[in-house]
Amino acid sequence: MKVRHTLTASKAFAAAPRSVQRAFLKQVTLLQQNLLHPSLHAKKFDESTDMWQARVNRTWRFYFTIEGDAYLIHKLIPHPK
């Protein structure tokens, strides 16, 4: 599977701390290999928009949809507590 990013996700990645950027890149690699990899904790977030949520680390999440043969990353945000 390919990975694409929205402009919003790209800006969030650029603004994120370096440690979050590294963790995000690692998690995206795992996503490409296996949507159900245990460290992703991937789950359907919103049925109506087919939005998924996955874990970057304990405090950050990313949101994506599956479009054809690609994962489209929409957001990268700190996890709301």
Quick overview:
With 81 residues, this protein is α+β, with helices and mostly antiparallel strands. It has helices spanning 7-15, 18-33; strands at 2-5, 43-46, 51-55, 60-67, 70-78. It has one domain (2-78): YaeB-like fold, CATH 3.30.2310.
Please provide a written account of the structure.
The chain has about 80 residues and is α+β, with helices and mostly antiparallel strands. The chain has a single domain, classed as YaeB-like fold, CATH 3.30.2310.20. Helix content is about 30%, strand content about 35%. It has 2 helices and 5 strands; from the N terminus they run βααββββ. A 5-stranded mixed β-sheet has the order 1-5-4-3-2. It is globular, with a radius of gyration of 12 Å. The N and C termini lie far apart (about 30 Å).
What's the rounded overall pLDDT mean? 95
H and E order: EHHEEEE
Largest sheet, strands/sense/barrel: 5 strands, mixed
Number of domains: 1
CA(first)-CA(last) distance: 31 Å
- Over the alpha carbons, how many angstroms does the gyration radius reach? 12 Å
State the helicity in percent bands.
25-40%
Task: State the secondary-structure class.
Answer: alpha+beta
Q: Per CATH, what is the topology?
A: YaeB-like fold
CATH class: Alpha Beta
The CATH superfamily name is RelE-like
